[in-house]
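Q: What structure does this chain adopt?
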Amino acid sequence: MHTQTHMLLGAAVFGRGRPAPAWAAVAGGLLPDMASFLLVLGAAASGMSAEAIFRTAYFSELWQAVMAPFHAVPLWGLALALALAFRARAATAFAASGLLHQAGDFPLHHDDPHRHFWPLSDWRFESPLSYWDPDHGGAWLQPLEIAAGLALTVLLWRRWPNRWTRAVLVLAALVYVAQGTAANVLLGFG
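A:
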């Protein structure tokens, strides 16, 4: 799943009521992908081509080791257990959203699975499906994700009338429209 879908889903499921848990849920949906973003941005800033980044560097042992803790279900589970033990509502929303991120990624990564059980294991589940790769369902999964993301945007729009929050939701919707347009062009539909 795309990061913004994780963020919106976390906010929709765990961000009810007061603003702190809602924004914590957004952060929990975002954090697992932050290491990837920083690595990609750093590599791009150093002049590495997109092809080199996504065909070589992304799969290097160093990058995989840096990304593993961010996708580790045992660490997210420990965070959730601690948040629940201390009855910390925002921390609970954060950790639960991080776990939901892992649940969304697990069945949708074919060639690029994460080490979801790190540090207990380096095993990776190579799903038959991919949220982005047209050879593994991406051609039909991506439009479904875009539709789900837009539906989540509408749901959160109705839930949160604050204009700044709505501005962020408009940006999320525009990203989905851009992704849908790009996917159609790449797949020959546009």
